[in-house]
Amino acid sequence: MISPYIYAGLNDSHNVGSYQMVENIKEAVFRCTGVSFEEIQSRKRFKNIVEARHLFHYFVRRKTPYSLKDIGAISKRDHASVIHSVKTIYNWLETDEDTKVNAQLIGYQLTKINTIKNVATTEGNEV
Global pTM? Predict the structure, then answer.
């Protein structure tokens, strides 16, 4: 189980399920883009890392109750960077086929990861 205190600066109002969802999103983004979370948090601006960072912000914003400030704290960015990421992904989803495919793959991976972890939890095993 993930400690609710793992990310400095996050509100206590978020439940452990939200922390688990962030971990699942990290895993799904890594599986689909090959970019590690350390690279997402880095200052590097290579296209593949920027796209993975934007996708991470986009999915955390859509799938969790975290504020922009909280999401920025997780990825070592400010809230304005998160806003920019989310808007950029919305634009890329309309115009860029590669981003569309990556977003669909990440969505599929999230469903798969959540299903596996839910089955393991109901059987009494922790993943």
Answer: 0.84
Residue 43 CB-half CA count within 13 A: 0
For residue 103, the domain's CATH number is 1.10.1750.10
Contacts for 93 with CB less than 8 Å, ≥ 6 apart: 99, 100, 103
Q: Is 2 contained in some domain?
A: no
Question: What was the pLDDT predicted at 43?
Answer: 97
Pairs from 25-28 (Cβ < 8 Å, separation ≥ 24): 25/56, 25/59, 25/60, 25/63, 25/106, 25/110, 26/56, 27/109, 27/113, 28/59, 28/106, 28/109, 28/110, 28/113
111: in domain: yes
